[in-house]
Fold this protein.
Amino acid sequence: MNLCVVGLQWGDEGKGKIVDILAEQSDIVVRYSGGANAGHTVIVGDDRFALHLLPSGSIRPNVICVIANGVVVDPDVLTEGIEKLAQKNISLNDRLLISENAHVVLDYHKKEDQLREESLGKNKLGTTVRGIGPCYADKVGRSYTVRMGDLRDLKKLKAKLQTIVEYKNKIFAALYDAEPIRADKILKKCKSYADKFLPFITDTTEFLHKSIAEGKSILFEGAQGSLLDLDHGTFPFVTSSNSSSLGMPAGCGVPAKLVDKLIGVAKAYTTRVGAGPFPTEQDNETGQYIRDKGNEYGTTTGRPRRCGWFDAVAVSYAVTIGAVDSAALMHLDTLSGLKEIKICRAYKINGEEKTFFPANTDRLSQASPIYETVPGWDEEITEVNDFHDLPVNAQNYICRIEETVKKPITIIGVGPKRSQTIFR
Ligand code: GDP
Ligand code: IMO
Ligand code: MG
């Protein structure tokens, strides 16, 4: 059985937790898009892991972890991730594979990300400043790139870096009046990356297809969320990759039809970090209640997340474009204590009722949500492990969301820990 887990909102839905749980039944877990902009949290007992590049199957010692071609790899973040796991006696030796075709995020990408955001002032996108946009832009531009496989030939890489750095410095000086970067410094870092990562760098597409032929079960781990998809999200307030499930085949070389089940992950409400339209946002006491109770602060940047009601229009869209089979609904526990809960079932745009999400920032900015209101519940539910033991209003809320998004909710999160999960 091959599974794909994908975020159905604007990221941080709880994908890390779900991937960790499903990885118990998987031989291989594959990250196929994004980079260290992702922050996937796994909590097991008293141990908390924040994974940025390593697949969320890393915590399970028998799982093979693949970073595929579609990922942009920041070797510094990867090194830190491996070291943090080592501190907990979790080793990735012999079970980490990194695509030779994955592009490398270098210091000049992060610098460019930061300079560009600063220069945009109030129009900034609110990126994670992890160099994601600049690295993917170089990938598409093709002329000035470093891929993981380039670490195999440092002599060739030296010449390449000299050309790249010359080009980047012209941009830094002309557009931002910024200090130049030094090619020798970057080359030195690349040498240390080569020392660390060469044993892991390989043709991951070949590995995945061989594994499929051997009947291995593979879990594909999406990063970000479907509404941050470069082509199908709320452009330009998106990330620079296809973060919906549509990005999975290109991101790892395995066609979508080899995936048996697609599991979408959503929160029982909505959050977003960074700029961009968010029709159900509650920039008020309710939003603050959710932020405090749900600990809604970014895993990667620590920024407070914007919070709002569940948006069935947005999630239905993500389900539709992603061919999602079933959903995991996380953070149900965060809603405990609210008297009433709202679900957005449609938008009003220019006087017209719309139930198909407009992936167009101008139109979406004009959308006013049409809500239905359901009664909340007071009980804390973090210890509940059977659906039927949930307060009736919580059960009804789940069922109502199932009706609005027209997919079964088979997993429910009632707390951050691996164990705080209800299966139906
Ligand atoms: P990801 O990027 O989709 O993997 O999600 P993040 O890890 O960035 O953010 C999800 C946050 O919610 C993390 O702090 C998780 O530990 C936490 N979390 C996940 N599921 C639940 C849940 O059901 N209830 C609560 N209270 N926290 C959860
Ligand atoms: P996970 O995998 C939430 C958002 C940023 C910003 C926009 C562009 O943890 O769900 P980027 O640095 O990618 O150029 O930023 O995308 N963003 C995320 N938001 N979760 C993420 O990942 C995100 N990755 C990027 O906040 O709005
Ligand atoms: Mg996250």
Summary: Residues 265-423 form a domain with the Adenylosuccinate Synthetase; Chain A, domain 3 fold (CATH 3.90.170.10). The radius of gyration is 21 Å. The chain is about 35% helix and 20% strand.
